[in-house]
Amino acid sequence: MSVTLTITFIFFLIIARFFYIQVIWGQELVLRATDQWNREIPVIAARGNILDRNGQQLAGNLTTYSVFVRPNAVKDKSYAATCLSEIFGLEMSSLYERLNEGNVSEIIVVRQADGELIEQLIACDIDGVYYARDNTRVYSYGEALCQTLGFTSTDGLGLSGIEKMYDGVLGGTDGEIMYTTDIVGNQTENTNIVYKSAVDGDDISLTIDIEIQLAAEQAIREVYENTGAQSASCIVLDPSSFEILAMVNYPSYDLNDVPRDDVQTLNELSRNSLVCDIYEPGSTFKVLTAAANLQEYINGNSAAFSPTYVFNGSRTRSVDGTTIKCWSDHANGKHSNQTLSQALNNSCNPCFTDIALALGKDVFYNYLSLFGLGNVTGIDFAGEAVGMLVPQSLVRDCDLARIGFGQTVAVTALQLACAVASAVNGGNYYVPRLLKSVISSDGNVVEESEPILKNKTISEQASSMLRSMLEGVVKEGSGKNAYIEGYRVAGKTGTAQKYENGAVAAGKYVSSFVGFFPADDPQYLALVIVDEPQGAYYGSVVAAPVAKSIFEDIIAIKNIQPFE
Prior knowledge:
Elements: H1 2-24, H2 26-37, E1 38-43, E2 50-51, E3 57-69, H3 77-88, H4 92-99, E4 107-113, H5 115-124, E5 129-139, H6 146-149, H7 161-165, H8 167-170, E6 175-180, E7 194-196, E8 203-206, H9 210-227, E9 231-238, E10 243-250, H10 263-269, H11 273-276, H12 286-299, E11 316-319, E12 322-325, H13 340-346, H14 349-370, E13 388-389, H15 397-403, E14 409-410, H16 413-424, E15 428-430, E16 435-439, E17 445-448, E18 453-456, H17 460-476, E19 490-500, E20 503-517, E21 524-531, H18 539-542, H19 544-557
Parallel strand pairs: 2-8
Antiparallel strand pairs: 1-6, 2-3, 3-4, 3-5, 6-7, 8-16, 9-10, 9-21, 11-12, 13-14, 15-18, 16-17, 19-20, 20-21
């Protein structure tokens, strides 16, 4: 009886094993067998082009080829190694060893080979050697916009910047050519060849205007070289939509010659500091303090100062035992008894300390939130920093006083540019963006980006008052070096001390200027930042002329006529 049970048990085990192999495991085994008897040649999809807002190509493709070998199908390995090494400049003995590795079904010999080399390869007629089209990414303007565009891997995958952000759109889907082989990998006679076509990637159009970009690149390069600065950068945007027109970070690198072998250098040069790094803005921040005050004045808040209110000429103020003073010594009547407009002209710190303290942290922090401080803007770019803002629950009066004139707060350049844009465009804070549209391979627009209103910051009335005051800064105040005869330019200078290990770093400053034009209907806004210029360091001297140069180029590019 026990023998019968044992036989029955073994029988059922065998049946169960057969069932597992045939039913449960069967599909996987079929796929494995198919894979052993079939070979595929990849058909690489063409990566989509990147265009500027006017259709100018920023990134495209050069047709090149990948060459690979199936060692088992190579009849004369010595001949194959000799030909391949001579054509592609490879080390012959190393290649020969690779061709004799029995456990390798396929090896890649070279990527991104040009067509002339492939013609030489064809002439050699080597068994087991194949080639397939791939793409070499080429960038029309080399260094221009390099930190924003980003770059791809040798396999054509987006690794940084726009190339990475929109890799799924640009990349497409590869195809293949499949055929059957014998046990050593040779193509069988009368084989059925199956062709699966590649689906090319879509093109994308950016909000960038390459002519404005190149003008900004030139201006930033010159100030970087002439001042011996650590770095210089600039962002230009359209205040009516927050479309990014130009982004410049200097020093930069050539996208057609990416320093892939030096990871540290590549990381430093490829970083888009305008989006990913923060800094203490200094006096350019006073635009936001003034905006909050004007709106609260319009709202009827008795703590706010009217445009005609005269601030006293005190040079220093003690807050929480901390002495807060102006950059000027106020000697010989400088900065004495001034209105808000004059305080902006003179960039007088104590006046903005008065405003922040008068409004109080609840009201003031509400405006900081509306202006996007302490949060990301939402731009379609990876790695955006949130800035640094003392939590409202922890802020002291001395902190609030310093925030009023741009200290004890850190922002990204993009955050500040967007905040100022909303303050001067009528109070509309949009989500900034780089993508304008997606275009299919047949030329149809399949997606178009539209402005997205995030929130309102101030009213049109307050914005109009602020624009007029900032136009005065360029006409009569610290921004005179941005003045352009016949054009209504407005803006604000900034000069911020740098800190190292919690203390002021002697002789190290960030010089900046944020400006826009026309002052009554802003169409172009530029924020220029020069980090650690040597010699002269005031934003009025270093950064304002750069903005003027960029605006003058825009005027010429767009043929903007002077006002009557």
